[in-house]
């Protein structure tokens, strides 16, 4: 999962030297963009003080020049090489009933492309860049799939909750925006890691992912 050894490197400093004048996306939904050089100034100034710092979540880096060259600089691990999104027809008629329009993943969980797919392929690859305290809120990946993630610089902290966990108990309120990760850790982390008040069956798995 590491980038191929071509001498370019994927540290923030090297990406900045190669693509500093390129605008990167902050959101799949809203489309805000910022030049990487401007973002570098932010993370070394306001970003050090923000409660929930801005982070780059660019799902289209592989579609646009000049960053599309990055697709040739990493290899998908063999165990994740199968593209399960190919099982879903992105152009199908979404007026079909869910029973007529279902697919199953390898674990036999039923997925409804009519209700979830919205007639387009969901984002499926990202470059994530952010300072300390940045990160995504609690979420479920598109079509209930799983993603492989490689950390290249810094650390990434994960909390993985059992499927039986009531979403509202961990701040996932239907129709409400995600709670920023730094705020979530302040408001919920103490509760969900306290065995005296948090049921064992809902206890999360906590991982601190290192580079490599």
Automatic annotation (TrEMBL):
Main localization category: nucleus
Any Pfam family matching the protein: Cupin_8
Cofactor(s) needed for function: Fe(2+)
Keywords: Chromatin regulator, Dioxygenase, Iron, Metal-binding, Nucleus, Oxidoreductase, Transcription, Transcription regulation
The JmjC domain, residue ranges: 92-212
Location of region: Disordered: 93-114
PANTHER family xref list: ARGININE DEMETHYLASE AND LYSYL-HYDROXYLASE JMJD, BIFUNCTIONAL ARGININE DEMETHYLASE AND LYSYL-HYDROXYLASE JMJD6
Subcellular location: Nucleus
Keyword Transcription appears in the UniProt entry: yes
Protein name, entry field: JmjC domain-containing protein
Superkingdom of the organism of origin: Eukaryota
Family per record: Belongs to the JMJD6 family.
Acidic residues composition-biased segments: 93-105
Example GO molecular function: P-TEFb complex binding
GO cellular component: cytoplasm; nucleus
PROSITE patterns: JMJC
């Amino acid at each position: 999962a590491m980038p191929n050894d071509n001498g370019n490197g994927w540290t923030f400093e090297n990406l900045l030297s190669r693509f500093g004048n390129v605008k990167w996306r902050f959101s799949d939904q809203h489309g805000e963009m910022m030049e990487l050089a401007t973002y570098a100034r932010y993370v070394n100034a306001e970003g050090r003080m923000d409660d929930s710092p801005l982070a780059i979540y660019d799902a289209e880096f592989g579609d646009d020049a000049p960053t599309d060259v990055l697709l040739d600089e990493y290899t998908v691990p063999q165990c994740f090489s199968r593209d399960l999104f190919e099982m879903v027809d992105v152009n199908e008629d979404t007026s079909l009933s869910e029973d007529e329009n279902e697919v199953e993943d390898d674990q036999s969980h039923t997925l409804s492309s009519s209700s979830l797919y919205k007639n387009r392929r969901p984002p499926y690859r990202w470059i994530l860049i952010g300072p300390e305290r940045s990160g995504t809120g609690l979420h479920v990946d598109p079509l209930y799939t799983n993603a492989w993630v490689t950390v290249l610089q810094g650390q990434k902290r994960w909390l993985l909750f059992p499927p039986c966990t009531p979403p509202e108990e961990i701040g996932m309120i239907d129709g409400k925006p995600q709670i920023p990760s730094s705020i979530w850790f302040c408001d919920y982390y103490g509760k969900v890691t306290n065995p005296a008040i948090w049921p064992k069956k809902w206890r999360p798995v906590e991982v601190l992912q290192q580079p490599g």
